[in-house]
């Protein structure tokens, strides 16, 4: 048994939850905030059998990896800013930080 | 020293807190939601000396075990539903998922 | 790699976050409540390289240690209570509970 602690951006949190449910992976979600990341994030606690650790890591990687995305321009864009701020802007979203922790005992009551 | 991580239903959370206080067990509560369970749950972090692990597990088992309970019928029960939905309904409540984690260092500042 | 789990009082939480950012220590914050402590507290999850564990512990110790502080008297102090409740009152604030956990795998996606 391992306890996987995964911190993902809120943006990816619901989708990850759904993929876990489809894959029959039990995950508990804790609302969290990051030191570096300004936006909110979610901490998942996932108890999983040793032989399924790679499967869970793969799910997290596919669902929550850091990637570039085009940001929609603000609605009231001042025409005079056009030259300085070209749109669409490419921004980095997502990203997951994952710890696999050893478990000495696991119980379900 | 061990770090016990216990996920219990909100329904049992206050009672478990009180039993921990009476037993002089220091527990920190985190608000959490589950992947499978629709209802909210609470994640307890409990730092405990090795020789008291069994005692803490026993407390969690006694306070938060999964059990069947009779659900009160809804107030405005439509008479025509009587045949299809017999009351009282027996539902499963409670349940705890518990991980005992090894601790390399423990400090209180 | 280690996962440091540190529970500190809300009072010290923002300051600790800032010191972590200045020291380039990545920390995730979870809102929590304590069993013994009535006031709210914050649980930090800090993933850190083995050789920086002592540095992180030192930061927590310097920022969040338990210490005595003089409490401001209540605004509408009844004169007749003067003899029974001398001001200023000295109260204990702060304090941190810290676990250093082993990590089997660490990934950033
Ligand atoms: Ni195992
Ligand atoms: Ni120990
Ligand atoms: Ni290591």
TrEMBL record, chains A, B, C:
Gene3D superfamilies: 3.30.70.120. It comes from the Bacteria. Keywords: Receptor. InterPro entries: CdAMP_rec (IPR010375), N-reg_PII-like_a/b (IPR011322), N-reg_PII/ATP_PRibTrfase_C (IPR015867). This is Cyclic-di-AMP receptor. It comes from Dellaglioa carnosa. The lineage of its organism: Bacteria, Bacillati, Bacillota, Bacilli, Lactobacillales.
């Amino acid at each position: 048994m391992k306890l996987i602690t995964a911190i993902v951006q809120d943006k990816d949190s619901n989708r990850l939850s759904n993929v876990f449910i489809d894959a029959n992976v039990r995950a508990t979600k804790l609302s969290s905030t990051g030191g570096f990341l300004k936006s909110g994030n979610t901490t998942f606690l996932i108890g999983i059998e040793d032989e399924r650790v790679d499967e869970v890591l793969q799910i997290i990687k596919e669902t929550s990896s850091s990637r570039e995305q085009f940001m929609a321009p603000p609605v009231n864009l001042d025409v005079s800013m056009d030259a300085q701020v070209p749109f669409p802007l490419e921004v980095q979203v997502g990203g997951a930080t994952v710890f696999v922790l050893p478990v000495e005992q696991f119980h379900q009551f």
